[in-house]
Amino acid sequence: MLSKDLLEILACPKCKGRLEYREEKDILICHTCRVRYPVTDSIPELLPDRAEPLE
Q1: CA distance 16 to 54
Q2: Which domains does the chain have, with CATH numbers?
Q3: Could you give the CA distance from residue 37 to residue 10 in angstroms, rounded to a whole number?
Q4: Distances (CA, A) of 37 to 5, 10, 11
Q5: What's the pLDDT score for residue 1?
Q6: What 3-state class would DSSP assign to 8?
Q7: Rg, C-alpha atoms of the chain
Q8: What was the pLDDT predicted at 37?
Q9: Which of 3, 12, 37, 40 has its CA 20 to 30 A from that of 52?
């Protein structure tokens, strides 16, 4: 689980937009870019090459 303080400062590396955290799947979603980023062991992997398209 990511802390609320961390979620407030995280941004999409592509568009710098807000990210939505989905705790049940451990992913961060950027609705603007329509991609998701994995969170592994409570560490967000916010690298553009780790982005996966939303289904």
Answers
A1: 18
A2: 4-53 (2.20.25.10)
A3: 12
A4: 18, 12, 11
A5: 84
A6: helix
A7: 10
A8: 98
A9: 3
Task: Supply the pLDDT for residue 55.
Answer: 82
Question: How far, in Å, CA of 17 to CA of 55, rounded?
Answer: 19
Contact 29, 38 (CB under 8 A): no
**How far does CA 21 lie from the centroid of its chain?**
6
The alpha carbon of 42 is separated from its chain's Cα centroid by a whole number of angstroms, namely: 11
| pTM assigned to the model | 0.91
Q: Enumerate residues 6+ apart whose C-beta is below 8 A from 48.
A: 13, 14
As a whole number, mean pLDDT of residues 35-44 equals 96
CA angle (47 as vertex; 45, 50 as ends), nearest 5? 75
Residue type, 1: M
